[in-house]
Amino acid sequence: MHETGIENYYAIRDGKKLYYGYTTGTCAAAAAKAAAHMLATGQTVPYVDILTPKGIPLNLEVLEPSVDGNHARCAIRKFSGDDPDVTDGILVYADVTAEKTPGVTVDGGEGVGRVTKPGLKQAVGEAAINPVPLRMIREEVEHVAEDYGIAGVRVVISIPAGVELAKRTFNPRLGIVGGISVLGTSGIVEPMSEAALVESIGLELRQKYALGCRRIIVSPGNYGADFIRTLVHVEETELVKCSNFIGQTIDMAVSAGYTELLFVSHIGKFIKLTGGIMNTHSREADARAELMAACALRAGADADTARRLLECITTDEMLEVLRAAGLLEKAMEIAGQRIDYYLNWRAKGQITIGAAVFSNETGMLCTTGPAEQWIEELRAAERGTDTEI
Length: 389
What we know:
Oligomer: single chain
Strand content: 15-25%
Radius of gyration: 24 Å
Number of strands: 20
Distance between the termini: 67 Å
Structural class: alpha/beta
C-alpha cells in the first residue's frame, strides 16, 4: 500500500491513536500541481509531492491522469483520517489548461459551490475556494509554470460528489449553491473525537483547579483568548478553551469545584446562547440571524431592519445593520441579558458566571453578571493596586 506520509501523524485520545487526514484544499492543490506537471511534460505522473501549510509533507497518488495537448486532468482522493467527515474518500479534480494570457487563474467547476450572497471571504459570483487553498493552488501551479516557461495557466477545481454532499452542509443557507466549499487553513485534518475532546476540557479544568485556580476564564477558541489578553494579562493557568461545548463546560466547572467562571467569546458563538443553545457547533444549530433579529426587535427594530438581519450571512454584517439603525448598543444589551439568563439557567446557582462578548471589528459588545468587575480586578492586580467598583 502506498504511504502518503500522513500515516506518521496522529493524536492520542482516550489512549487511542487517532490519525490525521488532509483537507479538500490540499487535494485541490496537489491535483493542480500534478496536472500542471503533466501539461508541461506531456506525460502522466503517478504521485505528487506537496507541503501543507502545517509543514507536513505528503506524497499523494494521482488518480485518473490524462493529458492531451494543452489540457491535463487528474484527481486526488480526500482522506479524513479518523475525523468524522462527509467528504472522506471523495475525488477532487483539477483541470489545467495552457492560456495565452499570462498568470494563473483559478475557478471552480462541478460540485464546487458558488457564492451568491455577500459577506463571505469570496465575492459574489466566485467559487467557494477559501483563501488558503486558493493560495496553495496558485503557488503550486506558478512554480511549475515558471520551471517550464509556461506563460499562462487556467485551473478549474471540481468535486463531482460535492453536488449531493452540499445538501448535508450549511452551504445552501450561506448562499453557496451547487456544491461544497474547498477548505483548509492548515492543509491537515486533525482527528476530533467529541467525547475525547470534552473529557480533555474536563481534565484541564480539574488540573487547574488542583493548582489553586478558583476563577477560571473560558473561551471557545483563539479569538476569545486573544481578546482577553488585549484587556489584561492572563496566565495560561487561568485560561481554558472549551470549543463549542458551553453547557458541558459549565457542568464540568461546577463538578471540579470552581466558584467563578468568566466566558470570553466572539458574538458569532454567543449570539446562539440568546436562544439557549449550549453547543454552538453549526451542525447542532445555527439561528444566528434569527436570534440577532429577535434581539433587535426587542430593542425596537422595525420589520425592515429585522428582514435585513435575516438576510445577513455573518455576525459582523448583522452588527453593521444594527449600527446603521442606531440599535447596536440596545440590541447588545438585550443579547447580554438573554446570555446571562441561559448561562445561569444551566449553572442553577452552583457557580457565579459572567461573560464578555466582543467582535473583532467593534471590540467589547456587552458584559454579563460580574464580568466587568472581574476584568477590572484583574487589571488592578496587574497594576498592583486595589480596585474600587
